[in-house]
Amino acid sequence: MTEATIIDGNRFSAGLRDRIASEVHALRETRHITPGLAVVLVGEDPASQVYVRTKHKRTVEVGMESFVHTLPVDTPEDELLTLIAGLNKDPAVHGILVQLPLPRQIDAQKVIEAIDPAKDVDGFHPVNVGRLASGGEALIPCTPFGSLLLLRDHLGDLSGLDAVVVGRSNIVGKPMAQLLIRESCTVTVAHSRTRDLPDVVRRADIVIAAVGKPGMIRGDWLKPGCTVIDVGINRVANPDGTSRLVGDVAFDEAVKVAGAITPVPGGVGPMTIACLLRNTLVACARQHRIALDKSL
Ligand code: GUN
């Protein structure tokens, strides 16, 4: 039996980062503008620390300025809002990302709404959410946008395909559904209350798994030949006490049924950071009213 094509997010994201680096180089040479990304981390969550370090490294690699602000876990909400107000005004900062989750004393929605929508490279501000839903110049959430780039690269035109998005979060599920509607897919959003989830998933030409439950989506839930995008990044324990990362899809089963599948790690993960850099470049260009290469 033929196994699914493995969709290589490392390869695709490296190509995208190269194209971004070329555009950044051109901006610096011809306009003397360096795109700048500010990342704010509150507290010491180890997974968040790893993400922020990786974002800093990739930002510098493409020739952008990286401003990392690390605040203690007990930072009052007011202090974070004051920092954001300063970043909104700072002309060297074109993109702002506040790493989630935030400590309990801070209202995440209030923080998201404090970011200037033009600098909201996460695409979480209600202005960007609304523009994605209704048309207009949105900044698009990075993980769904990266997933869409992989789908387009593998399948070409998506119009008319049945897509099932499993998960309805603001970060992935909901914006993913909007993007797939924009691509003229027939979109179903399934979630923890969905009845007969395996039957719903079995209808799909495209499955987006974004539930945060290791291996939840089984091989026999899939339509043969479908394309699977696994957004899950779950750390699970090995019998010998070490740990490994797995997705939301039971990969060893799914690879025997699907036509194509993203691995974890090495699928959607690297696309998220590449799309963050892309959004920073797009935000910078819009702030300076400069047209960018359409392939970005
Ligand atoms: N934490 C996990 N994913 C994300 C993301 O896409 N953006 C931010 N800001 N925090 C996250």
Automatic annotation (TrEMBL):
The gene is folD. Its EC number is 1.5.1.5, 3.5.4.9. Pathway: One-carbon metabolism; tetrahydrofolate interconversion. PANTHER family: C-1-TETRAHYDROFOLATE SYNTHASE, CYTOPLASMIC, C-1-TETRAHYDROFOLATE SYNTHASE, CYTOPLASMIC-RELATED. It catalyses: (6R)-5,10-methenyltetrahydrofolate + H2O = (6R)-10-formyltetrahydrofolate + H(+); (6R)-5,10-methylene-5,6,7,8-tetrahydrofolate + NADP(+) = (6R)-5,10-methenyltetrahydrofolate + NADPH. NADP(+) binds at G167, R168, S169, I233. One of its GO terms (cellular component) is cytosol. This is Bifunctional protein FolD. One of its GO terms (molecular function) is methylenetetrahydrofolate dehydrogenase (NADP+) activity. Gene3D superfamilies: Leucine Dehydrogenase, chain A, domain 1, NAD(P)-binding Rossmann-like Domain. Catalyzes the oxidation of 5,10-methylenetetrahydrofolate to 5,10-methenyltetrahydrofolate and then the hydrolysis of 5,10-methenyltetrahydrofolate to 10-formyltetrahydrofolate. GO terms for biological process: L-histidine biosynthetic process; methionine biosynthetic process; purine nucleotide biosynthetic process; tetrahydrofolate interconversion. Residues 7-122 form the Tetrahydrofolate dehydrogenase/cyclohydrolase catalytic domain. Keywords: Amino-acid biosynthesis, Histidine biosynthesis, Hydrolase, Methionine biosynthesis, Multifunctional enzyme, NADP, One-carbon metabolism, Oxidoreductase, Purine biosynthesis. The keyword Amino-acid biosynthesis applies. It comes from Magnetospirillum molischianum DSM 120.
